[in-house]
Amino acid sequence: MYKLPFVTRIVWRDLSLLCAFLVCFFAYGLGNRPFATPDEGRYVEIPREMVVTGDLVTPRLNGVKYFEKPPLFYWLQAVSIKTFGIHFWSMRLWPMFFAIWGGIMVYVAGLTFFSRKTGLYAAGMLSTMLLYYVHSRLIVLDLAVSIFISATVLLAYGALHPFTKSKREPLLLGAYACAALACLTKGLIGIVLPGLIFAVWGIFIRDFYKILRLFSLKGILIFLVIAAPWHILVCLRNPDFAYFYFIGEHFLRYTTEAHRRFQPFLFFVPIIGFGILPWAGAISSSMKDLFNASKIQKTLSNKETTCHETTLFLAVWSGVVFLFFSFSHSKLIPYILPVFPALALLGGEALRKREESGKQHAFCCLGFIDIVFALGVAGYGMYELSEDAQLKTLFSVDLWSIALFSLAAVSLPLFVKGVRGQVFKGLAWMPVLIFLNTVAIQVQEEIRPSIKPLADIVLLNARPEDRILCLGTYYQDLPVYLNRLVDIAEWEGELAFGIHAEDVSHRMMSAGDFWPIFQGDQRVFVLTQKNTYTRYWRELYFSHKILAETERDIVFINK
Question: Distance between CA atoms of 137 and 14, rounded to whole angstroms?
Fold first, then answer.
């Protein structure tokens, strides 16, 4: 009877267990919770409109042209809507899918470039890094593009690796395909960032001939076949697309403060430091190992030298991503996600070395420091965000309980060996999951008050012929909850391009156009923020009725 090679058997056994763990782990985030960020409503509303109108080329938000991002993630969400309908769990299937793909990807990379243990540790670390886990539960495209970019980099590096000579062409073509998918997810960054990583790597190793081996005519053809058709079609249908998308959304967003997202140069330092918890100790240890190996590189064996070169490449990858986004004049927290797979592989290799060398006590101290740091930052932030005394008490109790459990999770596997040790290692994961889940839920539900309670009130009272209007703001998740488009008065924001690209004045209006409509015969439901309502209170005093309000928002009606 033919037996599979040892490595192949290990891969399939590990993959089956790893997939089962990741599915159970990330599926817990599919719960029926309201959308926590405006982006989540956007990435449901645009696919919903694509399904309703049948137009898969021109993205529209609330019926208005919206060209900030390419359509791949919209298409994927449209598939979910067409298959399962609009539900919180069905909309979060794709973030869960990409989170699982990321875990499997770093496992295969760790197994290929280092060892089986490194792959398993890296997969576990990436999946349980705080920022990565939080984004597996949010309907945003940053996790998807991060996975596509990471897959591009790992496949391209695999094509250059001495252990994969026989598979060079398939790996390289796969890298080009993933780069095209990344471009269809979030634009030119899908090819710019991997290209920059390998350009810096070429300078670092002083071997540009090796980097030039990544050039492939077949790969370029595959890239164009995947990425070019949509860009060509949307330009043909919308002549004003090219300048807005390529110049405004790429060049000007990166080089200017036009999008009002400017942050200090070191903005991502605390984001990475807090986002990699509870694995900051392992990752910082990997940097120490990298420095020590560089000093004694001449004494390393061939295998150790190859692993060291891969570690250097991962360090370059991390540094390039960090510097690229740090120099940008537009910064948001999710932008830094492409650095996490590289950090997970570095940490996984460091953890393997510590386990095999028996130098494990240091991880207990580092783990304790991680937990104390997490407690301090998260506790202070949640205390400041919450004005409710009961919530403050709840946060305090949860954080200290989770801290104790997480400390045990970091420490316990380091001292127990043998069969019992494996059981304890499995049990030790549970507190880490509790920690991540609790923080993720708090981030997801406390990031802003949801408009869903007011949307439910409107649904109970509004008739099909009534108008629903946002005054001075726009709630991107409102059309999703109402299953209809809404009117907007005295607000343009990110819809400014679409508002001026075509005539939508019957739905997008100024304050002067709003008052005659509000005082007319048709019933109008108005949702707005309380500070906006206060500003117009005198004009509204004799002609409206408040239906409901939350801490930040209010809904009123004219009749």
Answer: 25
DSSP letter at 461?
H
- Give the integer Cα–Cα distance in Å for 475 and 528: 9
| Burial class of residue 368 (count of CB atoms within 10 Å of its CB; 0-12, 13-18, 19+) | middle
Q: Once rounded to an integer, what is the mean pLDDT over residues 154-172?
A: 83
Give the predicted TM-score (pTM) of the model: 0.85
Q: Which SS3 state, helix, strand or coil, does residue 132 take?
A: helix
Report the C-alpha gap between 495 and 508 in whole angstroms: 10
Alpha carbons 343 and 338: distance in angstroms, whole number: 10
Please choose, from the candidates 449, 278, 508, the residue with its C-alpha nearest in 3D space to the C-alpha of residue 372: 278
| Residue written as token pair 């986004």 | 325
Radius of gyration over every alpha carbon of the chain, rounded to an integer in angstroms: 26
Q: What's the whole-number mean pLDDT along residues 100-106?
A: 93
Nearest to 527 by CA among 450, 462, 465, 458: 458
Instruction: Judge whether residue 433 has pLDDT over 60.
Output: no
* Preceding omega of 278 cis (within 30 degrees of 0): yes
Nearby residues of 383 by Cβ (< 8 Å), 6 or more positions away: 392, 395, 396
Provide the CB-side half-sphere exposure for 315 (13 A, CA): 20
**Chain centre to alpha carbon of residue 232:** 27
State phi, psi for 412 to the nearest 5 degrees: -60, -50
Domain assignments of the chain as residue spans, ordered by start: 102-254+267-359, 365-447, 452-557
CA-to-CA distance for 311 and 290, rounded, in angstroms?
Answer: 7
Give the closest residue to 70 by CA, choosing from 244, 225, 192: 244
Coil vs helix vs strand at 58: coil
Kindly state the DSSP code that residue 247 receives in the 8-state scheme.
Answer: I
CB atoms within 10 A of CB 374: 22
SS3 label, residue 448: coil
Distances (CA, A) of 233 to 75, 228, 284: 15, 9, 47
Quick check: helix, strand or coil at residue 545? strand
* Burial class of residue 148 in the structure, from the number of CB atoms within 10 Å of its CB (0-12 exposed, 13-18 middle, 19+ buried): buried
- Confidence band, pLDDT 50/70/90 cuts, at residue 277: confident
DSSP 8-state code for residue 30: G
Contacts (Cβ under 8 Å, ≥6 apart) of 333: 131, 271
pLDDT of 54 higher than 80: yes
| Rounded Cα gap, residues 443 and 382, in angstroms | 9
* Token pair for 85: 């309908």
22 near 103, Cβ under 8 Å?
yes
Length of the chain: 559
Residue 392 has pLDDT above 80, yes or no: no
Report CA-CA distances (Å) from 393 to 202, 290, 372, 379, 447: 53, 43, 18, 11, 19
User: Rounded mean pLDDT of 484-506?
Assistant: 86
The pair of three-digit structure tokens given for residue 373, joined into one six-digit string: 């740091």
* CA nearest to 239, candidates 74, 70, 67: 67
Q: DSSP assignment, residue 359?
A: -
User: Percent of the chain scored above 70 by pLDDT?
Assistant: 74
* pLDDT bucket at 263, cuts 50 / 70 / 90: confident
